[in-house]
Amino acid sequence: MNQRILKANGKEEVIQFLEELKQSSFFPTLAFIFVIDKSLSFDLVAPFYEEAVEVFATCSAEVIYNDSKSEFALVALVLAIPRSYFSLVHYPADSDSFSLGKQIAKDAKNQFLKPALLMLVAFKDLSFEPEKMIEGILDFDSGLKIFGGIASSFGNVENPPFYTKYGLETHGVCVLTFDEEKIQIHGLAVSGWQELGTPKKVTKSIGRKVYEIEGEPATDFYAKYFGFNTENLGIRKNHIDPDLLAASEFPLLIRKEDGSEVLRVAIQMDSKEKSVSYGGDIPEGSLVRFCSPNTMETIQHSYQEMFSFRSDLQELYPDFILMFNCAVRSRSLGPYMNMELNAIHKLWNRNVIGFSSWGEIGNSLHSKCGLHNTVISIVAIRNVEDSNRKNNELIEEDPRTIQFEPTTEVLTMEEMKREIDQLRRDKRILGHFLRLTSDDLEQEEVKSSKLLLNILPKETASRLRSGEVNISERVPSASVLFADLVGFTSFASKIDPEKLVTILNQIFTSFDDLTLKYGVEKIKTIGDAYMVASGVPNHLFDHADRCIQLGKEMISFMKEFSKKENLPLKIRIGINSGEVTAGVIGKHKFTYDLWGDTVNVAQRMEANGFPNCDLLPKNCTDI
Fold first, then answer.
1. Predicted local distance difference test score (pLDDT) of residue 227
2. Whether residue 373 is found in the same domain as residue 246
3. According to the per-residue pLDDT averaged within each range, which of 78-87, 290-299, 614-623 is highest?
4. Which residues is 65 bridged to in the sheet?
5. For residues 179-186, average pLDDT
6. Smallest Cα–Cα separation from 372: which of 131, 175, 173, 206?
7. In the prediction, which pLDDT does 183 show?
8. What was the pLDDT predicted at 450?
9. pTM of the model as a whole
10. Residue after which a domain boundary falls, among 274, 292, 310
11. Helices 543-565 and 497-518 sit at what angle, rounded to 10 degrees?
């Protein structure tokens, strides 16, 4: 594909570049342009419009060129391709976002038989919902390819815009549509963030605005975890407010109904209504978890997925790579971001141009197209008709052998001061977050321990928690008790299910209290049957006596309970003593159980016994 690269810091350089193109008989038709936020101006890009070049351009928190973040005010990749291969349209966000998406898809399908879309999005308030726009596009045609990014700034521009020939647009979408019969695009979005802490429930939300998490106002929840003030601060935006930007490095992970996962970054806080707004929808009732990157693992993960993606393209080698890299990702990875960019550039060995965005549109390996945060999204673009492309320049190095090292950047005194301020803020927020996350994990550990003790003996639970896998033992002398409710089956057929469960719970809860009283182990319940063991896993010299006394109290309880509640229920009990085998079975749902003739005989004793009587063999009475 016929292309040229421009790196410039002023309008005169742009004019000179375009003049040199004409002198070399290169007549551009389309330009991808990314302008750093601190140098944002229409004049910088105006010469392209004056030469009738179609412009796909945006304000950028950071500009990316090849193997690093560029220091130039503007970077452009200019193409000379037939105008019939593409169309470029700007849409104002003055209708609902879903309808806007359907209109975009309709226009694309009217333009080309097989269209593919690249987008630049800008919004000055939350009335424009990019995720709903994507849903509208896919509702019209679920097979459309869509990639893009949201205009960005690190605090220099309050409402980052994209460019149009009429000026800067802060609320709408720029759509570049390619005819895929001429220009093919393939893309992939990769994150690599890892889950932290414990799941939290979103208890009140509408769309992408969350009002409560775990029953607590969302702003208070964030203040608790990240340690910053939320009182009387009005509306805070993450690209303006440094504290919220730092907290954005810990996005929420949501698992959607289709099983796919997406990360959501906090983009705005409203102290008055105590809400937190995110880059995309968070359904009420969702279970979410904070996430964070492990720098080296995150980079290795993204490189491996891109290596696989490139391999899957086989002979469909691109002419250049368009990149939408999350600004929060870049901030979080710090000096390692250029290391990741360098590895990706080497992997493709093509021109790479792009910017750090506030949201990325694309698909991952395991999910369909959607709006993402924290991802690095690449789009491989190729001219189908170009037969002169060199395909043998791509490296074939195994991604597992790549050695990643951070690049060394020389900072000015002012840049170093900003870096130190940022590190101090990050340290404070991270420290606060990790302390609370650690507390969460400790609380979950206590809950898990209590739950484990509800289904396993204390000693057995300790062995399981220490990592022991095959837990079993032969106990030479123990006692087993089986109890069964007589008349329960016929009674159950005549009573409301909810009331039935309530009655059964009352009975078994009382039995549980009795097992604690006598220091025996409840093994399990099966329907209306209740099984207990004494002398396992720890030996008890009076195990038989404990079971006998327990059985007597169970009978007494059932007599009183049935009389009080006017129930036609009695209890039948069988007890036996002898050798048993005890152990834990299962992997995800553990069960502590007993096996052997002693167990079988106790069960038969119960089955053949009389209501409201203990039935036990001679060996049990001898003990």
1. 74
2. no
3. 78-87
4. 68, 353
5. 95
6. 131
7. 95
8. 62
9. 0.69
10. 292
11. 150
Gyration radius (Cα) of the chain, Å: 34
Question: DSSP assignment of 565-602, as one string?
Answer: HT---EEEEEEEEEEEEEEEE-SSS-EEEEESHHHHHH
* CATH at 603: 3.30.70.1230
**Of 391, 403, 306, whose CA–CA distance to 347 is shortest?**
306
Q: Are residues 17 and 42 in the same domain?
A: yes
Dihedral sign, Cα of residue 80, residue 84, residue 85, residue 88: positive
Residue 410: inside a domain = no
> In this structure, are 236 and 114 located in the same domain?
no
DSSP classification of residue 296: H
Q: Both tokens of residue 339?
A: 């290391």
Per-residue b or e along 179-213, where b marks 16 or more CB atoms closer than 10 Å to that residue's CB: bbebbbbbbbbbbbbeebbbebebbebebbbbbbb
pLDDT category, 586, cuts 50, 70, 90?
A: confident
State mean pLDDT over 493-513: 92
Residue appearing with tokens 């849409």: 91
In the chain, how many domains are there? 3
Residues 571 and 594 in one domain: yes
Are 486 and 388 in the same domain?
Answer: no
Paired residues of 177 in beta bridges: 87, 117
- Structural domain of residue 499, as residue ranges? 470-622
Side chain identity, residue 230: T
Q: Find the mean pLDDT for residues 175-192.
A: 94
Read off the DSSP letter of residue 374. S
Backbone angles phi, psi at 460, to 5 degrees: -70, -40
What's the CA gap between 298 and 492, in Å, rounded? 56
Report if residue 285 sits inside a domain.
yes
Q: Does 435 map to a domain?
A: no
Angle (CA) 276 278 280, round 5°: 145
Sign of the dihedral defined by the CA atoms of residues 18, 24, 30, 31, in that order = negative
Q: Do 210 and 282 touch, CB atoms closer than 8 A?
A: yes
Q: Is residue 463 part of a domain?
A: no
Domain boundary pick from 383, 401, 419: 401
Please write the tens of the pLDDT for every residue from 238-290. Answer: 777 777 777 788 888 887 766 677 888 888 888 889 999 988 888 898 888 88
Distance CA 227, CA 220 (A): 10
Name the token pair of 475. 């106990």
Closest CA to 369 of 189, 194, 207, 208: 189
Same domain as 228, residue 146: no
Is the pLDDT at 89 greater than 70, yes or no? yes
> Residue 217 forms beta bridges with which residues?
212
Strands (E), 225-383: 235-237, 252-255, 261-264, 266-270, 275-278, 287-292, 320-326, 351-357, 360-364, 367-372, 376-383
Q: Give the start-end residues of each E strand in 207-311.
A: 209-213, 216-217, 235-237, 252-255, 261-264, 266-270, 275-278, 287-292
Residue 203 shares a structural domain with residue 309: no
**Would residue 61 be called left, alpha or beta, if left means φ above 0 and alpha means ψ between -120 and 50 degrees?**
alpha
Average pLDDT over residues 485-492: 90
Examine the pLDDT at 561 and tell me if it is beyond 80. Answer: yes
In angstroms, the Cα distances linking 362 to 134, 186, 262, 370, 373 are 10, 10, 11, 6, 11
User: Both 165 and 257 in a single domain?
Assistant: no
pLDDT, tens digit, 9 for 90 and up, residues 44-77:
999 999 999 999 999 999 999 998 899 899 999 9
Distance CA 119, CA 128 (A): 15
